[in-house]
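> tool_call: predict_assembly(chains=two)
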Amino acid sequence: MTCKSYEAQKGLAFAENVSGVQFGRLDSNVTLACGKAKIRIPVVWHLNHSSALPWHKVTLNGTLILLHPNLSAQGNYSCYDNRGNLLHSVKLRLGYPPGQLNVSCQVPNHMRVRCSWVESVKTFLPATYNASWSVKGQDGRPCVLDVARKHCDVDDLAFWQTTHTLRITETNALGSETTEKWLNLHTLLKPNPPESVSVNKIEGFPKRLNVSWRFPSSWPTHNAFPLLFHIRYRPQGSVYWSEVYSEDITTVVIYDALAGHLHQVQVRARDGINSDSQWSEWSRLLLVQPWQAYPTTDPAEDIPDFFTFSTKPETTTAIPPDNDPNVEDNMGLVILLVLFSVVILTTILSLIFVVWVKQRRHDQVTKQELKSMVKMKSMPI
Amino acid sequence: MKLLLDSSSSLLFSLLLAQLPVFTSASPVPQRRPTDMDKLSNQTKNLMKLTQELLREHAFDSDVEPHRFRSLPEMGNRSANDLNNLELKPTLSQLHADLKLYEHHFEWLNKVSKKHHHPAVPKLVEMIREMKSLINLLHRQMQRVEAPKLIPATPSLPTQLPYQFDVLQSSHELLQHFKLFCDWAYRAFLSLKPKVTAVQ
């Protein structure tokens, strides 16, 4: 992201009188003329009906020059002739011309961008803004301003462009300045945190927790915009987080919670396709304790503030999208595997038996052959 | 007796064979056969990964885009809202034409990178191979749904890149554009998946 600033008009010591108001630059000499007539008569200047003036000098033609005025020099200036007749009156406002703006943009989805700014120079003067948004090869379009909140919005973006350009021009009575910012929306994309996050104990399972949430409401619900979720949890007091990732599925079951302990759980989200984008902020920290056979009156009661866990490393589990953590299914699978093992074992034993029977029969045949041979040998020819 | 033993061996062997389906069905996650659209989106994801790796490995920090490539597929008219209303046949045809155009650009880049002995050449070759495979897969899908094949635009490529710096800059520009294209194409395939099922 790059920022460039340039001045269109700057360095004016004062601006022309607009409806009785004259603008001057702080810390620079400011000249106040006593009307338009160039009469060489002695004049007296007053500030807010007082003859006490800030550091100044008066020229021969009655012009008042305020030398390096500060904010206290602002007010209503009046000049009078030597008979006390009012010749001219003007309100002086002091400040600075606009400076570079510090612009930052939020991209919560592929349709909208909001850019906010902070002035690098406090001008002390009212300003107007103009903001435009452009992409390569296209005409600029307005970035819709909210001057009070100092931000502007662009909707229905042509998101899949390498560079987008935002130009904001700030103008006040002393000048104007345009700040130009090049943006890569792909790296700025940062969803809002998942919503309605809830963690529930699962009846009958002291080591399990069910975590569920909803897509951020600002994220499109269409299947072309999958989200990757990152769930982290730890027993309260532990410094190590365990982690689970879930692709586009808004519920996971934690299987390795610490029985009888209060757990902290948080969820965050990132675009499921663009790995250059940013993770959302974490959801609010939730505290929940897994199911207990004999719950204590207050779950937090018997849990010390700090645990001394054996150094359990951060564990990561990836939940595939189609994984259904169903207990009955797993039990069925175990039974099936046991049955299968029994069948295999029986088969192997039967094979061994068959081989043994074959071998025995072969031995018997050999014995019989030998016997016959001996008999034949002993027979008289 | 021999006959009996032989037949019992065969019976046991058959029993073992009969266990095979049981064994396969006992795998923890039931495997769904990937559809052609799954293959297309996976292949696109793979290409995007290769592009990101190339961009990371040969990082080139530049604020100024040289705009050397005037004939890359136009992305300025593709918004997120469009992804909700994509039509199957025109989108497949357009993606095919776009990929063909990128293929020409990357083949050109590969040629000039070889000339300058750029270290990214092996990965570029792999990318072009993957791209061709995706184009073929997409073409098959187009034939299946009777999507017309668009006449590919003629690429306008830089005539010469005298310095290594120019090659790096061009490579960066092309990869940046292609990464965004892959992102959009992947989402388009996801979006079109239910529509293909409806057609078939």
